[in-house]
Amino acid sequence: MKHLIFLFLLSTLLFSSTLNLSISSNPSRINPILSSDSASSEISQWIFNGLLKYNKDGKIVCDLAQSYHFETPTQLIIKIKKNIKWHDGVEFTADDVIFTYETINSPKIFAPIKSSFEKVAKVEKIDNYTLKISYKQPYFKALEVWLTGLLPKHILKDEKDLMTSKFNKNPIGTGAYKLKTLTISSDIILEANKDYFDGCPKIDKISYKFIPDSTTSFYTLKQKQLDIGSLTPIQIDRQINKQFKKDFKIFEKPSFGYTYLGFNLKRKKFKDLKIRQALSLAINRQEMVDILFFGHGKVCTGPFLPKTFAFNEKVKTPIQNIKKAKQLLKEMGFNEKNPFKFEVVTNANNTIRVNAAEILQYQLSKVGIKMNIRVMEWQAFLNTIVHPKNFDAIVLGWNLSLMPDAKPLWHTKSDKKGGFNLVGYSNKKVDKLIEQGEITIDQKKLKSIYQEIFKQISDDLPYLFLYIPNSITTVNNKIKNVSNSLIGVTHNQKDWIKE
């Protein structure tokens, strides 16, 4: 009997597999409603599920939910899958959803996602596996809010202070992996959830190595001590060899962010659309992508990301036309003796943005525009330049979600203290489209509205939309069933096999 037990244990060790990853900072709270830092969010994604999730194409599909439908434009019915277990074996039910919703809205909780639930009027339990969710008005992000990871009521119902709870370092979820060990500034180990409702992951463990320095992380990747890593354009272009390409698959996709040159539209010099058109025609965006990213990026054409429903393919990539730019400048009275002048401010800790500003300066000089550059420390930049809107122009960037929301950046009412309409953009037609979009739950209608917003903003040129860098991911060739997608390579990690 002892011999059989030994053979079983030996076979378990021989055939167990580990996915080796790195993490650059310590997770503060592994809790889906409190995770505000990237490390906490990354660990949380393995441990918790929402009612809904994004599939590989960026479409919302069921996760813990079995089905959903709108009974009316303001009433959503969600049915939950049966026999889903929390990591401690207790069944997941509608009570856990209601508890999570009430916790998010508790005055004791400072949850970054609280504002996402402002349009929810109430969440009611019809039975253990059915919920009726009522909204204050039809809401275009009615489904998106339920991507949020859910909390176990049976564990947390008597918790006095969730913000400081031990749960945040010892989480219990419904996810594909359970937290096994968490050591500050050291390794984090996750183990496969054998009772996972969607089937046990084929890789038994996930091991995160704590590597705060990106150079060390790159070196560790090249030593094959990591199975997944990110590469910068210079690394993929200049710092890896043929052997690396044999050892790793390389996947590229557009990142979820873009960089822009934003004009202060309250200043007289930028009020005339002609000057913004001249600036746009004077620059070569593709040249910028090639210089900054060795071609590992693409030109940005507008405010929403490619391959999302809001992206308007009919808006073409702006092409440099120096002759036309000079003509427009001449029409406005600018020439060698009276050049158009302005200052651009950006942040020192982002060398790519600084380099982008220098490229812009050089390109604009070809049409006689004099652009001065000021580079500042990040907090000083935000506090003295960005927030008080004390600038001619800024080079900045936005990270966006798959479900874009135009209101914070582009609505006239967002041009206020603390608002994100930093450039003072105002277009009554765009305001109406944004307001119409907010109450549209029909996805085809919403797509049409948002693509029109895209076109209007692109035509108005409140920004010169510059570039979208590629996200470059490498995966160990020993891992099978890996494929790229809009949301990244880990979309089907549960099905990965490590040989």
Explain this structure:
Strand 8 (177-182) and strand 9 (188-192) form a beta hairpin. The protein has 16 helices and 20 strands. The chain is globular, with a radius of gyration of 25 Å. The chain has helices at residues 2-15, 38-47, 94-104, 153-156, 214-222, 233-238, 242-247, 268-271, 273-282, 285-293, 322-331, 351-365, 378-386, 407-410, 428-438, 443-460; strands at 18-23, 52-54, 60-62, 65-72, 75-80, 120-127, 130-135, 177-182, 188-192, 205-210, 228-231, 248-254, 257-263, 297-299, 341-347, 370-376, 393-399, 463-476, 479-480, 497-498. With 499 residues, the protein is α+β, with helices and mostly antiparallel strands. Helix 9 packs antiparallel against helix 11 (322-331) and helix 15 packs antiparallel against helix 16 (443-460).
Which descriptors would you attach to this protein?
2 domains; Dipeptide-binding Protein, domain 3; 4-stranded mixed sheet; 499 residues; Dipeptide-binding Protein, domain 1
Give a brief outline of the structure:
By secondary structure, this protein is an alpha+beta fold. It is 30% helix and 23% strand. It folds into two domains: 198 residues, Dipeptide-binding Protein, domain 1 (Alpha-Beta Complex), CATH 3.90.76; 214 residues, Dipeptide-binding Protein, domain 3 (Roll), CATH 3.10.105.
